[in-house]
Specification:
Blueprint: E1 7-10, H1 13-18, H2 22-31, E2 37-40, H3 47-56
Parallel strand pairs: 1-2
Helix pairs in contact: 2-3
Length: 71
C-alpha cells in the first residue's frame, strides 16, 4: 500500500522554529506530495515562519490574520 499525505498541519510553527526544528520541517516537506493542503498556525509571524511558509504552502495561499492591528 502506498500512503499519500493529503494534509500537512504545522501548529505553533513559531515555537517549533524557535526550538530549532526548521531543518527537520524543511526535510519532511521535501518528502511530501506538493499537491497536499497545508495549514500553518502561529501566534506570531517572525521571519523564520514566513520562510517556512514559502516552501510549505502553495503560491496562491490565503493568509488570515486574526489579531486586530491595535493589539
Amino acid at each position: 500500500m502506498i500512503w499519500t499525505t493529503k494534509v500537512l498541519v504545522l501548529d505553533e510553527a513559531d515555537q517549533m522554529l524557535e526550538l530549532g526544528f526548521q531543518p527537520a520541517i524543511t526535510r519532511i516537506i521535501g518528502f511530501l506530495n506538493p499537491d497536499r493542503q497545508t495549514l500553518l498556525f502561529s501566534a506570531t509571524v517572525p521571519k523564520k515562519v514566513a520562510e517556512v511558509a514559502t516552501i510549505a504552502v502553495k503560491k496562491d495561499y490565503v493568509f488570515l490574520n486574526c489579531i486586530p492591528k491595535d493589539q
